[in-house]
Amino acid sequence: WDQAELKPALSAAPLYGGVWAIGASASLPLGVLDKNPPKIVATFPASKPAYISPNNDGVQDSFEVPLKITDQRYVVGWNMSIANEKGGPVYKRFNKESRPETQDFKGLLGRLTYIKKGVEVPDKLVWNGVTDSGQLAPDGSYGVTIEAVDDNGNRSEVGPFPIVVDNTPPSVDITVPENPPIFSPDGDGN
Question: What was the pLDDT predicted at 18?
Answer without folding.
Answer: 87
